[in-house]
Amino acid sequence: METRVEHAVDQLKSGGVRMTPQRYAILNYLMESIIHPTADDIFRALSPQYPSLSIATVYNNLKVFVDAGLVRELTYGDDSSRFDADLSDHYHVTCTKCGTIVDFDHPPVKDVEQAAAEATGFTVFGHRLELYGLCPTCKGMHS
Ligand code: ZN
Ligand code: MN
User: Fold this and answer.
1) For residue 119, how far is its CA from the centre of ligand 1 (angstroms)?
2) Count of domains in the chain?
3) CA dihedral defined by 17, 71, 112, 105, rounded to 10 degrees?
4) Which end is more exposed in the chain, N or C (fewer Cβ atoms within 10 Å of the end residue's Cβ)?
5) Domain containing 15: what range?
6) Does residue 115 sit in the same domain as residue 79?
7) Cα(141) to centroid of ligand 1, in Å?
8) Could you tell me the pTM of the whole model?
């Protein structure tokens, strides 16, 4: 049985992307991560093991993965993009205090798309929904 990383590697190779140890490490980190890391998070996590890794290499690889459809880029205004290798339909809840992002499984809210289509005459084919609040840890702290 092929693992998710192996499957992703095969997909990249068949798209003509050469595999390097650093590229593999970044991909593997993303696939195993649940924290929705920024490029900087990835760099800091992997640089002890890969001293020659540069932040530019991390950015280049993230672009390769996003272009190949293996990873989703999550943008939040002017903040650093975060990256998610979980491509299933899910929403994110963000803690406004510590920045933690947690997955939230919920069927896509198609009725909003329907309502928007009816109200505007658009053909609506997607939406973006972000939820904000305080995570359990931050909620428990006296500020
Ligand atoms: Zn928090
Ligand atoms: Mn996610």
Assistant:
1) 37
2) 2
3) 140
4) N
5) 4-84
6) no
7) 9
8) 0.85
